[in-house]
Amino acid sequence: MSSLNYLYLWDNKIEGTLPLAIESMYSLTCLDLSSNSLKGNIPWSSLSGLSKLSELYLDSNQLNGSLPSNFGNLSSLVLLSLSNNYLSGSFSLSQLENFTKIIFLDLSNNLLTLEINPHWIPKLQLQYLYLSSCNIHGDLPAFISTQYTIKFIDLSNNSLSGNIPEWLWDLKFLQALNLSHNQFGGPLSSKFCAFDAQYVDLHSNKLQENVFLPHPNVHFLDMSENQFDGIIPENMDKYGSSQLIYLSLANNSIDGVFPHSICEGLYLEVLDVSNNKFTGNISASFGSCSSTLKVLNLENNHLEGEIKSMVCLQTLKLGGNKLQGPIPSSLQNCTSLEILDLGYNKMQGNIPIWVGELIDLRILVLRSNKFKGEIPLQLAKLQYLQVLILSNNNFSGVIPSSLRNLKAMTNQTESSDILQYSDSSSVSYLYKMEIVGKGQFLEYVKYLAMVRCLDLSDNNFSGDIPQGIGFLIGLKFLNLSRNYLNGTIPTSFGKLVKLESLDISRNNLTGDIPAELQLLKFLSYLNISYNNFSGRIPQGGQFLTFNGGSFSNNEHLCGLQINTSCSSSLSPKSTQDNYVSEKEWDEDVWWEVGIGLSIGLGFLVVIGALYFNKKYCFRCFKIMDEVIVILDQKVQKKIF
Q: Which CATH class is domain 325-579?
């Protein structure tokens, strides 16, 4: 292949190492082996002879080793992409000094430690610089200020610190900037207001003082998880006709009333201002949002009032505010709604039956409000519902047996999907969810699509636990605690093979703990305390991993976990038919002991008579031994 110019083998399943014979392909100008399963060191000595090579893609493999101090004759390189491998060791960018033609450099997501001389003024002029997760320390590299034509910069996931220099906002051709997950601090320069790159990501830093919004031409802006405070400037009318698609100011300390003009942006799809200190009436600030809006996250602020109207969304998260009134009827026709979280508010009323018509609903959270009434049977029609949390309300009645029809909760298949919103312009928003499970608060992000949760705790539900709950075999979290449930634990719970957390404490449940629960090999948290259970605690499966707190305040339970011997403590059964009185036990045992002694005495007579015949003597002892074993087993069965 000495005359070959282009070799594209990207995104296959090629394994092994890069062959040394590649040096014979000296006419190559482009080599793309990205997104395969190649391993081993990169044969730089063989590649160095490819003097015409201008594009080299080896990213997204399993290559290791270090980068060479001398790249040989590869000075014609225009594009070098080595990201997402296992390359290691220290490397100085000044070693690329002779690569004057290179405009694209991607070393991201390796095990490299990049050294950048703060006084280095390179001859090259980069347009694309990707150095994410390269262990870069100190200030923002000063050489970037000399890259006058640079378009894309990604220095995320490093240890950069200090203030963001003002010269950065003067790079006129910059289209995308990602400085997230660093330690930049101090205030933003006022020049930031005129910065008009399309993509700006500054989240997860330590930026402080008043928040500024950049030019309305910005499409994507993420300034979440910083230390901004103060208020958003009131004069934001220009954002009503902005190009903004994605805005996140979450996890700061911004207060005041949120400017409603931002919510009216013509192209706005994602708005996340959660975990701040915004105040005011929710309908006044967010009641006239753009019809393009798909994700609205306002949780954990100080918003008040009723939700009078709301555009049709895909995700609506309003938890942790001071909202009142019923679930807004304006959501009735939002059949594309996937996540509805109204938890931790002061809302009241019943769950309207039309909620069962939200056919795409996957997560419904109404916890810690003042909702009442019964669970409508129509909820069972939600075939994609994987999380239902109604805890800490005033719901009453029985738990509907129709919940067994929640198809998504019957699915045992482990999904590798990431639950997120994304659009055709590659804007994506990762969903997060806090679930009370295993006795603590658990936050799920990446694996939220795998979660199956049913939480009806802390209400006024009564009656038996439906057997049908046991058919939700995909459940990982089941919490029915703090209600007025009675009856027994359904034996069908033994089918919940994916269950990790089960809490049915503080009810009026009775009977034995079903032996079927020993089949739940993933069960790591169990709480059945404060009930009226009786009998022996199972000793198989996961049960020996639970401490006494899991079974406390059940007067008639016994077992190793609560240091109560079942042989000395006669534990009553849940029904009188199975109860054996102490008098009956004494009569049966002494009758059997008497028979045993009589038989034993008879055998002694026979043994005396056969003393001189050893053959018959041996056979006699064998028969007597078998009889004693049978009697012993019968007595043991009565005792235990």
A: alpha beta
